[in-house]
Amino acid sequence: MALKITAFAGGVGGAKLVDGLAALLPAENLRVVVNTGDDFEHFGLTICPDLDTVIYTLAGLANPLTGWGRAEESWHVLEAVEQLGGPTWFQLGDRDLALHLERTRMLQNGEPLSAVCARLCAQLGIAVQVLPMSDDAIRTMVLTDEGILPFQEYFVASCWEPKVSGFQFRDVEKARPAPGVVEAIQLADCIIFCPSNPWVSLDPILAVPGLRAAVAEKPVIGISPIVGSQAIKGPAAKIFAELGYQPSALAVAKHYADLLTAFVIDNEDAELQSGISELGMLALATNILMQNQNDRRRLAEEVIEYVSKEVLMVVKP
Amino acid sequence: MALKITAFAGGVGGAKLVDGLAALLPAENLRVVVNTGDDFEHFGLTICPDLDTVIYTLAGLANPLTGWGRAEESWHVLEAVEQLGGPTWFQLGDRDLALHLERTRMLQNGEPLSAVCARLCAQLGIAVQVLPMSDDAIRTMVLTDEGILPFQEYFVASCWEPKVSGFQFRDVEKARPAPGVVEAIQLADCIIFCPSNPWVSLDPILAVPGLRAAVAEKPVIGISPIVGSQAIKGPAAKIFAELGYQPSALAVAKHYADLLTAFVIDNEDAELQSGISELGMLALATNILMQNQNDRRRLAEEVIEYVSKEVLMVVKP
Lengths: 317, 317
Description:
- Two copies of one chain form a homodimer.
- In chain A, the strands form four sheets. Chain A has a seven-stranded parallel sheet with strand order 5-2-1-9-10-13-14, with helices on both faces.
- In chain A, helix 1 packs parallel to helix 2, helix 1 packs across helix 13 and helix 4 packs across helix 5.
- In chain A, a hairpin with a 2-residue loop joins strand 11 and strand 12.
- The first copy, chain A, contains 13 helices and 14 strands.
- Chain A is an alpha/beta fold.
- At the A-B interface, helix 3, helix 4 and helix 5 of A face helix 3, helix 4 and helix 5 of B.
């Protein structure tokens, strides 16, 4: 019997590993819980960047160069927005925009985000269950030296340049997990924390009431989003430094120390293995960079094998 | 001194005549009051078809084949909406969509439609003042044998096939004219009713509280949207017939008999001149079809000359 895996994912890095897992596991054995703290409203449309990246990646529609957005994209709408003097800081490709239009239409018809997501996945031939962490709007706010910024203003408009002092996941305290999320955790043999940003991709998921406690009952394996002192993509390392931590895979392992059963780091960081073990978890060093389709599958294969042979043998205290 | 003209317009036919007038009059002497009863919400965006047609036409961006939408348009967004299983009945070109996005963004920022319209016109280099009839949402509902249909569902989705028994301009009773509209009427030497659909393009404007009374104080010249028993474009003639009137330019003149000082019909309908005169207004027969840029200018020129030489000489009772 194949493993039942539930992966927690943010955007590009998470989507790549999920894509590798989807190539190996029967679809019914893989569920993905996706961060929605990055979601925002723009031009009256509800945009869900992490969900979209996961969906495009699993549908084979993702732009292979950027990781986000759609392949073979055109930019006629945004060019015309610019002609009208409108804001162009958020990259909206023509085909990508269709997803925001259709999602907004369904949401305004009263469908919850999880139902919208399921319909879009079915329409695009995605068999894996992709779940938003919540149907309730949770908005990641970044506390910076330039004030409190909505996530996309920090991340895209300000190119993650402002210095970070903390985060708020606005309205998370009154949010509920989306239908199927708690079940996805309970049904799983193992939870995978994808190589996503701990602070702004995975922490929002864990902040949804009930999810951290549900995860604590399960074996959990994390994959580092940091190699050496650099994030593979995005501001993870910069944020660790600004919050007073030496950025490294070890810092990520410490961040989740209470939840992790095992942690996967890059070969380049092999010397961190003993430090990670001292946190009370298994440590695996391998090549964690996913630069092409083969890398995704290879890393997913190694993670699955490691989970089967070692992680599931660990008895949580 | 050039005439001061305020034109009332719906979509394609109205925009063409306004374009001709704009080529002849100093920009500060021409104002256009545009129907917003056709406006609707789609995919979360506020779409104003008549305003857009007037704006695109005056900006030189209109599609010369259809009269609506933009020239050199592409359809990548709508193709992707179709791929997602979304509704494609309303034609949304990529560049056209930019206008709906930007307008919706400004409206959601709290700007009234008239201010949005002024900004878009300034951005597109339109010097003529283009005014929505109201900043308040008024929605034309079509009473048909298939029930009460929002205008775009009747006009586009149902291809104006249902049989019409009447109209409602929803919420018009509590609407106010947009800033500048009453002034535009009061400042004008003459009001022009463009060759737009009387029932669904001009009647909504006249239904805005205060506008019919303001127009009644002014010389008014109308241009027929019907030649023979056929509308030049759209359902005007079909609606006249369904409401029990013989469709003709005479029927249009009768429709506005209480307001019109003069009415312009096509040469083909010259025999209607005496019937129109019997309604107590002047009648001019000329070629009213506007098939190209020259036609627009020629008709506008004839209308302006007729107004100067004859219409302004009439003393309203």
